Amino acid sequence: MECSRRAFLQTSACMMGALLSRNVLAEQAAGGKRPNIVIILADDMGWTGPACYGSDLHETPNIDRLASEGVRFTQAYAASPVCTPTRASIMTGKSPARLNMTIWHEAAIERLQSKGDKPLAPPITETSLGLEYVSLAEVLHGAGYQTAHVGKWHLGDAEHYPETQGFDVNVGGTLWGAPYTYWHPYHGERVAGNGVREHRYVPGLALGKEGEYLTDKLTDAALDLLGRMKDKPFFLSMWYHSPHTPIEGKPELVEHYRKKIKEGMTHKNANYAAMVHSLDENVGRILNKLEELGVAEDTMVVFLSDNGGFDEVRNGEQVTNNVPLRAGKGTLYEGGIRVPAIVKWPGVTPPNAVCDEPIVSTDLYPTVLDALGVKAADAGCGELDGVSLRPVLEKPSSGLDRDTLCFHYPHYYFNTGPVSAIRHEDWKLLEYYEDGHLELYNLKDDLRETKDLAKEKPDIAADLHERLKHWREKVNARLPEKNT
Length: 484
Fold this sequence. Notes:
Blueprint: H1 2-29, E1 36-42, H2 61-69, E2 71-77, H3 83-92, H4 96-99, H5 105-113, E3 120-121, H6 136-142, E4 146-151, E5 169-171, E6 188-191, E7 197-200, H7 214-229, E8 234-239, H8 251-260, H9 270-292, E9 299-305, E10 313-314, E11 317-318, H10 334-337, E12 338-344, E13 353-355, E14 359-360, H11 364-372, H12 376-379, H13 390-394, E15 404-409, E16 419-424, E17 427-432, E18 438-442, H14 458-475, E19 481-482
Parallel strand pairs: 1-8, 1-9, 2-13, 2-14, 4-5, 4-8
Antiparallel strand pairs: 2-12, 3-19, 6-7, 9-12, 10-11, 15-16, 16-17, 17-18
Helix pairs in contact: 1-6, 2-9, 7-9, 8-9
């Protein structure tokens, strides 16, 4: 009872601090030029998904166009190899380990019910993004922005939907990680991982008709909102489901890509390519709408993915291939966490620039604060794990005052066991919890992570391991335990 009372008081204090900070936010943000903010998030798009990142099959002229107008990052990371934690990191600027949100929403609920049958029992984690955190939308709302979320949410139940996290409008955001189908009417029954039957749906879309496609309809809603918000500063969180499963591309596009596939190509899934194509078309529609409304030069546009590409087999085909990176979604190898990321900030970013500095999804929050001219302390958001990207956005050849990134995934996935990882300069160490073994790679020399140097370089492995353990203690990362 005392613990519950203490938690209530702490939460109340945080919320009161956030409320008191809003006047400060509004005063600070009113002092200078404030860009509109558009964050376009793809779901399960691997590092080489866009053509400008090396895909030999996918056609992404609009994402490529955005890259030609801004900064394309070659070493961008999602904070997690799965969706919910990365989304939480974008909304809070905090590591998923600090938030204790290291697994997707549905799996967090399942862990409350069962330890499973694996050698280790993953930690019990939060199932929803706590209202005590000051979300990115709350910061912007407090600074006088209109705020709209469109598409996938996946950050908790109805008590934690976008409307409770600072958004004026929510179209399509629910607790689920994927739609039942991409085809109108987008709903139907399925059996969840715990065996429970559920009816999935996408709320908030206008009446439609057979043959309409979810990616297009979500963009229709976003374009309407942009038209309504154009006369005041706005924040659009445009989080697509594509190209997450179910793998359902438009038939004419599937056929187009099927004819393109040749022996020796890296990407060979025509259905997946069709989904990427539709995603790209809709990125183009948003960019064109900003220009049509006359606000493109006043708008920061960010494009990235929530984790690496899903490389499991569906319907007899591998969904995607993350080559030249190792593995994919769910793992802490590069294929699971390295993602495409592009930022266009008119007046700040040079055109057609490439930046090799490692960045991570937690950096978006402090970057937006920087754009507003607002200090983290005044935003009431507590300690942040990201840093502002402004230095490398202004001068992509420069660096950030940071040389280490850490990741924590204390769970099982089809292709991995519980694991943590640290990247320090060009070195990367992974620690697997089932047997405690370490793996060490030099990413500069071995991007594919094929040569484990842990035994050859024991001093480097030991140093990185100590750094990793110190970071876990700092953020209070929860660890798996022996299953009994």
